[in-house]
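User: Predict the complex with 5-amino-5-deoxy-1-O-phosphono-D-mannitol.
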Amino acid sequence: EKGGYDHFMLKEIHEQPKAITDTFRGRMLADKNMIKMSSVDLNLDKFLNANRIIIVACGTSWHAGLVAEYLFEDMARIPVEVEYASEFRYRNPIITEKDVVIAISQSGETADTLAAIKLAKSKGAFVYGVCNVVGSSIARETHSGAYTHAGPEIGVASTKAFTTQITVLTLIALKLGKANGSLSDQAFKDYIQKMNRIPKQVEELLKIDDHVKSIAAVYKDAKNCLYLGRGFNFPVALEGALKLKEISYIHAEGYPAAEMKHGPIALIDENMPIFVIATNKGHYEKVVSNIQEIKSRAGKIIAIVTVGDTQVKEIADHTIEIPDTQEALTPLLTTIPFQLLSYHIAVMLNKNVDQPRNLAKSVTVE
Ligand code: M6R
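Assistant: Here is the predicted structure with 5-amino-5-deoxy-1-O-phosphono-D-mannitol placed in the model:
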């Protein structure tokens, strides 16, 4: 049932090229440069006339929501707020009929997310679900939505659910950006062609598993780790830290790289591994200077860079290369090495990878 893999988590990590392709199927028609999603088409006026989009979710799904904030604002110029469902539902939030709420949940059963949906509906908002489990409570409770089609995710640590959530949300952002004119036809086409390459690129990336494993062996006994990223990759830093925490029980913090000097920099010494996403677009130069600051405090730097990088390679202790793509699509790639890294560290530490202590796959109580 584990398809020859030692753990469900590893199987699910390796299923991602197929899972992302399944998420595209029938939706992204790359040869025609089209995105067809009836759930968005049928509600296009609601999305395009929305005052704002409010995304509610928990855990890894909340991280996918954060990536979506960057995607929707950049591609479709629609204001987005991302909320922990548990906070949103209890703080007497301002919700109007002009708001669109997107609820993201792998299981479709998360109690806080479900309650947030019910609250938003009672205030007249249009609620759209992004779920993996077909027929789940959240899929039924929302007005409309899109399934991620990742297939069953058994490992408690979410992997393919995360990348397929980002895939669906990217398709929606692109579609809305095209519909409201925020994206030119050319930019839209470029994105589709680059998106279309992602499954193959993930497949390529999975081949570096041994390299990631050798890095895992060096840092498996660390007591604390920092994960840094900026822009589209800030949420990937949060997700990388969560993956490490939940299956290896090593304390890890994710931060926007520039926030480092507002506190966490005090933690840095020669015992602190720092995982930095430094892809060659967006905020590259700024991240390079963050890396230099770490270096001068003797922190250990493991950097995720774009293939062909030279600048970061000179400074970092280890680098992991990802294939080149549009900056907005990099989270689908940069997250893969972090999944593998956490997996290998947890295995090396003899932890129960698929069923970490104290955690349940779906959190049906608040
Ligand atoms: O099923 P959901 O997506 O609603 O679950 C939300 C979180 O409980 C979940 O993402 C959790 O954080 C995972 N264990 C992360 O790997």
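The chain has 15 helices and twelve strands.
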